Amino acid sequence: MATKSLGFAVSVTHLFGSKSPPKLCVFTLRCSAGNGERPWKTSGARLMLEDGSIWKAKSFGASGTQVGEVVFNTSLTGYQEILTDPSYAGQFVLMTNPHIGNTGVNFDDEESRQCFLAGLVIRSLSISTSSWRCAETLGDYLAERNIMGIYDVDTRAITRRLRQKGSLIGVLSTDNSKTEEELLKMTHSWDIVGIDLISGVSCQSVHEWVDTTKQEWDFSSKGHGETFHVVAYDFGIKHNILRRLASYGCKITVVPSTWPASETLKMKPDGVLFSNGPGDPSAVPYAVETVKNILGKVPVFGICMGHQLLGQALGGKTFKMKFGHHGGNHPVRNLRTGQVEISAQNHNYAVDPATLPEGVEVTHRNLNDGSCAGLAFPAQRIMSLQYHPEASPGPHDSDYAFRDFVELMMQEKNKKSEPQISTVSSLDA
Ligand SMILES: NC(=O)CC[C@H](N)C(=O)O
């Protein structure tokens, strides 16, 4: 039997002189476990970052050359839900958890109809899969969906770099004919800021959603025995948002991102949900306009991108954070109750609360950096969260937000059904 050994070798090569910014540096990480044999064919890949660093790795999934923004995700589990979260369109997701792929992939954990992310960056790809739900390996799953992945790369060193420099554009390539200079040039020829990524992930037609959370996974939903009709704007909506709303007794109509506000209002919904979605909220003014035309007319709930669009529609500003929040273990304080929730997060932008009009209340704060994590504007029946109460993957602490939304719709319905008091003046008598 081969002796088990874990070896690391890091080589750093400076290809340019110190006066030529940015310097090209090559980082190689060699690892061997057991006899080093893997049950798949290995081939090389390079990840070039816009700061000039090159990370040599092994490829799995699809091959090719792909540009995207590199972000790190601190979730310990749930890589399949992360891979199918449409909000990652245009991004390479680097998992800080070093061991990925051990449960394979299954038929239940898909968060959307396909993988929209640019690629997956991991430290170590599990050589075996073990789960009663496993339908195939992570490598086969990515290859079938034409998504690139790399492993045997120092994810910790890249994460430290992203924390110091902020999110970086990267190019991942399995093409040996491309020179390092060409790859570096590619990183400078694309940016995630200012482009509409929502139009590439939203559904194309109006449809009904009926699936609820499966009973064995449901832990908290209690409907009110009453059905509320919710129109859900699909800016890249995660399926678990829809499942949680359905589990709380909502009848859901999903509409594309370009669906006019006037058509939504004609449907006379009890509430409107603005979903999560990829990219820069300032690149989709049409969506902000839609939100503006709905505000104040029915109760609304914004999640992540939906929260940012609401912030802009109220007259506030959004800004790009240094490296954003991506993970399933981020603390948030609910300022109304004082309670701390451990939350699932995935965003690079945030609303600046100082730019919001009077009457808008910051309801939640991210405890890592104090950024705004939730808003409410009771006068207009608005609530929103910057993070993910649907928690797929992630802890379930924030699930109550769906109940709060149902209560907001119920209050509105009760208000409408109350008898109207009209004052009769003496002149009318
Ligand atoms: N999950 C989301 O909706 C992400 C929102 C937005 N794309 C951001 O990065 O901030």
UniProtKB/TrEMBL annotation:
Residues 43-173 form the Carbamoyl-phosphate synthase small subunit N-terminal domain. Transmembrane segments: none annotated. The keyword Chloroplast does not apply. Its EC number is 6.3.5.5. Pfam families: CPSase_sm_chain (PF00988), GATase (PF00117). Small subunit of the arginine-specific carbamoyl phosphate synthase (CPSase). CPSase catalyzes the formation of carbamoyl phosphate from the ammonia moiety of glutamine, carbonate, and phosphate donated by ATP, the first step of the arginine biosynthetic pathway. The small subunit (glutamine amidotransferase) binds and cleaves glutamine to supply the large subunit with the substrate ammonia. HAMAP family: CPSase_S_chain. This is Carbamoyl phosphate synthase small chain, chloroplastic. It comes from Glycine max. The gene is LOC100776931.
